[in-house]
Amino acid sequence: MKTLLITIDAWRASHASFTPDAAEEYTPALASFAEGGTVFTQAVSHGPATPYAFPALFSSTLPLDYGGYERIDPARTLVSERLREAGWRAVGVHGNPWLGEKYGYGRGYDFYEDVGEFGLPFLDDAREFLIDRFGLDHPAYRAAQKLYRHAQEPLQRFRGGPDEVSTAIEALDARADDLFVWTHLLTPHAPYTPPKRLREEMGVPELSTSPTALVTRAQRDPDALSEREREAVKRLYAAAVRHADEQLEPLLARVDDETLVVVTADHGEALFEHGQVGHEPALYDELIRVPLLIRPPADAPIDASVVDRQVQHVDVAPTILDYAGVSPPSTFRGRSLRPAVEGETLDDRLAVSEVASTAKTPGRLDENAIQVAIRSPERKLIRNADGDLLGFDLGDDPDEERPTRNPRGSEWRPLESALDDRLGAIDLTGAAAAERDAAVERRLQDLGYLD
Q1: What count of other Cβ atoms lies within 10 Å of the Cβ of residue 319?
Q2: In this structure, are 171 and 257 located in the same domain?
Q3: Is residue 87 part of a domain?
């Protein structure tokens, strides 16, 4: 058996065409593929950005366990490590600077590639000069950034460098069984730069500036945009999602019937909800509700095309191990979702989402910035960094616009108890900060994380 895990960066649940609340044909290729699998409509990420989400996805532990998420502590057993212990091979490929081997994510892989590390020294030097001279928002820097991106792709192909999809296809074609392949697609992450034909197809209005410049403005000061500009940003994001779907088409076409496929996002994306474009460090549903699709191999039964129970990212690794016939390590918090795929009824478990970083210091642990949310399908309780306790009735207020401060009543007690337990369990004492070199800092700037 083979397993393919596809993760898509910054992909909202509302923009997955196989989910009931999708308004448009955002992902037609994935929607077609989903016809042979099970869609989970209430899947929750444990954090609002990549460095918070992936510890849960890969190790079935919460982001702030084991000293936090800046490095993956060896005490967290990764799904790739457990599979390797059972004799499997593993291939991983991504383009996100948060997921480098230096942070512990490469453990258990026979091949682990960061395709975003490819660089052009002469262009790097020019970009650094322009940043120092003009700043990130100046047209001169934006022009250099555009040149960098356009030059990087063909030169990388010329040098034979891999990309996320081609590497996954090559891996699936090369070995018949006992293979785990993970590919993480950085599209549709900001700054939302889909091809022109997709911008036209998805109805992006004519712009007087570049998409990158507009999205950067939206990230920094969303309230300053006009209605037309706001609509342009939303349509750019939709076009970027469609671009991700197109990129995955050849990979989906190469998947055989003997392969387990899991498709999800690391987190969602805010599109002007709660005064934000982008993600982190908030814990609203536009950021923590994610698409989740499981398509089992042909010899495994499937009796549910849609599951409406609340599930979580910590459930992904146990599910992969279940189908592989490999027992989970004792550190795993989650449960296998295979019984739900096969028609059994799951109970709704409370989901924890958390973060301990600020908008100015993304990915950096700060004990004074801890936020924790406890979510059920009906309600959410958030303790923010200021110590405020906010309750949301997700039935009456699905957009989370009318919080109740310090909610009381029997319906809130299980959430409050779980919140208190989680806050009491978080211990960041002695957590080591991960070092970031200049190349990683530049890539985080390009993605809008850093100024």
Answers
A1: 27
A2: yes
A3: yes
Q: Cα separations (Å) of 179 from 91, 223, 259?
A: 8, 48, 9
**190 shares its domain with 336:** yes
Same domain, 190 and 300: yes
- Return the bridge partners of 211, or none: none
For residues 213 and 126, state if they share a domain. no
381 occurs within a structural domain: no
Give the torsion through C-alpha atoms of 197, 445, 73, 164, to 10 deg.
20
What is the band of 147 on the pLDDT scale with cuts at 50, 70, 90?
low
CA triple 116-121-122, angle to 5 deg: 130
pLDDT in tens, 267-322: 999 999 999 999 889 999 999 999 999 999 999 999 999 999 999 999 999 999 99
Cis peptide before 281 (omega within 30 of 0): yes
108-121 pLDDT per residue, tens: 999 999 887 544 44
| pLDDT > 90 in the chain, percent | 77
Burial (Cβ within 10 Å: 0-12, 13-18, ≥19) of residue 230: middle
DSSP secondary structure letter of residue 229: H
pLDDT band for position 242 (50/70/90)?
very high
Residue 310 tokens, joined: 């609340």
CB atoms closer than 10 angstroms to residue 348: 14
DSSP lists the bridge partners of residue 379 as 393
Among the candidates 155, 172, 202, a domain finishes at 155
Q: How far apart are CA 314 and CA 353, in angstroms?
A: 11
Query: For residue 413, with 0-12 CB atoms within 10 Å meaning exposed, 13-18 middle and 19 or more buried, which class applies?
Result: exposed
83 and 219, same domain (yes or no)? yes
Collapse the DSSP code of 276 into the 3-class scheme (helix H, G, I; strand E, B; otherwise coil) and give the result: coil
Angle at 114 between CA 430 and CA 146, to 5 degrees: 110
Q: What percent of the chain has pLDDT over 70?
A: 85
Q: Tell me if 396 is assigned to some domain.
A: no
Report the predicted TM-score, pTM, of the whole model to 2 decimal places: 0.88
Whether 241 maps to a domain, the answer reads yes
Whether the ω angle into residue 188 lies within 30 degrees of 0, i.e. cis, is yes
Do 288 and 311 reside in the same domain of the chain?
A: yes
* Domain membership of residue 140 as a residue range: 119-155
* Nearest residue to 302 (alpha-carbon basis) of 344, 340, 342: 342
- Is the same domain home to 109 and 126? no
Same domain, 25 and 129: no
254-266 pLDDT tens trace: 999 999 999 999 9
Q: Which CATH number goes with the domain that contains 66?
A: 3.40.720.10
User: What total number of domains does the chain contain?
Assistant: 2
Strands 277-278 and 111-114: unpaired
